[in-house]
Write a structure and sequence with these properties.
The complex is a heterodimer of chains A (about 260) and B (about 160). Chain A contains ten helices and 14 strands. With about 260 residues, chain A is an alpha+beta fold. Classes of the chains: A alpha+beta (about 260), B alpha+beta (about 160). The complex binds flavin-adenine dinucleotide and FE2/S2 (inorganic) cluster (FES) (2 copies).
């Protein structure tokens, strides 16, 4: 329950952080996923690079329709309304159900997405939203569509020499409907099945089914699901051919309930 | 590594290995044994202290992250009026038995009282989900917090 020895570095600018990464340092942000992995010796880095003091790492900026959320923005800040407008309402509702407040006070949206736990909340919701993950590497910034960011269990589209520096989302009109369902037996526990459906005026509805022990299933056009939640949710969940009948039932039900709530 | 942090209002400089977490630093280096360790992976809440004004898991903050932080442990709340009310409430409602979970419970309880003045029983229970108690069954803890919330609402009107 105690970590193996490691060295600590605190870069204070992005080039220094990228240089540490190139030397093999493991990034750490809130430490709410890496911390347990260190204590349990599931992660054995020789050095960690603490990203929290990088300029602009935390905080939200709005430019026109684009809302840029610094990767170091905590779940608690989002819960407390750091993101404005309808988009902010939706994100605040999701954030409040992540873990527990003391974990949310330190855990970050970027750390969660980069970690790519299949049951994590941002992993299950961000792919439904219009926007990009902003990666920074030696060649500069690169934008990766959120729907294509998480590739598998603990696997993302980030390259080894890149850091996640922000999430850029498009503001949502007031009439946007959002349904979200997460199966946990206890608040704050990791989800057994999560689904969300986003229906914004003037664009096809989108949906995500996650916590599948695989990359989230992103449904780019969820019109049929919105029209017939029960039948479509059953069809989509059956097509996943999940081994456990209870998991299939939770997946199907989460998707149906999210769709019903988004109508 | 050598780090400097503020603990219960006083500056402390300690020489520790980077792998030392805040709870071990508090207990082992500063002899503040009121912070308890249960699971050491963020789940039980026993180690919860206030860091830079907000509750945090001291088992998940390794030394580097503590450099420059301001920490308040259970020992540091002696003069705090909300904590005084919670202590009375916990005592009156039998909200502890062995006391192992109590320091973390109190830090989270104080955050609930200050951040969510309108919290009802369901919300208090939701907010307490990250603090495990093996003794009390939670009823006394929930009642103590609801009592402090009600008294403060009464005082405000
Ligand atoms: C008890 C407990 C319960 C939890 N329950 C939930 C839950 O219900 N739902 C949920 O979604 N999460 C849950 N979490 C996880 C929590 O949300 C974490 O905060 C989050 O997963 C990681 O964010 P972090 O900033 O702490 O990242 P860290 O732990 O610091 O890092 C996580 C990983 O991402 C990498 N990384 C971090 N930042 C970057 C970056 N900018 N670029 C590239 N790589 C990076 C690190 O190297 C590491 O591999 C729980 C955690 C705990 C301790
Ligand atoms: S010891 Fe830190 S949460 Fe259990
Ligand atoms: S009083 Fe014993 S664990 Fe809570």
């Amino acid at each position: 329950m105690k970590p193996a020895p490691f060295a600590y570095a605190r870069p204070d600018d992005w080039p220094a952080a990228l240089a540490l990464l190139a030397e093999g340092a493991r990034p750490v942000a809130g430490g709410q996923s890496l911390g347990p992995m260190l204590n349990l010796r599931l992660a054995l880095p020789e050095r960690v690079a603490d990203l929290r003091h990088l300029p602009g790492y935390a905080g939200v900026t709005v430019q026109g329709e684009t809302v840029r959320i610094g990767a170091g923005t905590t779940h608690a800040a989002i819960e407390d309304g750091a993101v404005p407008g309808r988009l902010g309402d939706i994100l605040a509702g999701v954030a409040r159900r992540i873990a527990y407040r003391p974990v949310r006070n330190r855990g970050t949206i970027g750390g969660s997405l980069a970690h790519a736990d299949p049951a994590a909340d941002w992993v299950a919701v961000l792919p439904a939203l219009p926007g990009h993950a902003v990666a920074l590497g030696p060649a500069g910034e690169r934008r990766i569509p959120l729907a294509a960011f998480v590739l598998g269990v603990f696997e993302t589209a980030l390259r080894g020499d890149e850091l996640l520096c922000a999430i850029e989302l498009t503001a949502l009109p007031a009439g946007t409907r959002f349904g979200h369902w997460k199966f946990c037996r206890k608040p704050g526990e990791f989800s057994k099945a999560t689904a969300c459906v986003l229906a914004r005026p003037g664009a096809p509805p989108t949906a995500v089914l996650a916590a599948l022990d695989a990359a989230p299933l992103v449904i780019a056009d969820a019109a049929a699901l919105l029209a017939e939640p029960a039948a479509e949710a059953a069809r989509i969940a059956a097509a996943l051919a999940l081994d456990d009948p209870w998991r299939a039932a939770l997946a199907r039900t989460a998707l149906r309930r999210a769709a019903e709530a988004a109508r | 590594m050598k780090i400097t942090l503020t603990v219960n209002g006083a500056a402390a400089t300690v020489q520790v290995e980077p792998r030392t977490h805040l709870a071990d630093l508090l207990r082992g280096e500063l002899l503040l044994t009121g912070t308890h360790l249960g699971c050491e992976h963020g789940v039980c809440g026993a180690c919860t202290v206030e860091v830079d004004g907000a509750p945090a898991r001291s088992c998940l903050m390794h030394a580097g992250a503590c450099d420059g932080a301001s920490v308040c442990t259970i020992e540091g709340f002696g003069e705090d009026a909300v904590m005084a009310a919670l202590r009375e409430g916990f005592s009156a409602e039998h909200a502890l038995q062995c006391g192992y979970c109590t320091p973390g419970m109190l830090v989270v309880a104080r955050d609930i009282v200050l951040r969510l003045p309108d919290a009802d029983e369901a919300r208090v229970r939701e907010e307490l989900a990250g603090n495990l108690c093996r003794c009390t069954g939670y009823r006394g803890i929930v009642r103590a917090i609801l009592g402090v919330l009600a008294a403060r609402r009464g005082a405000a009107t």
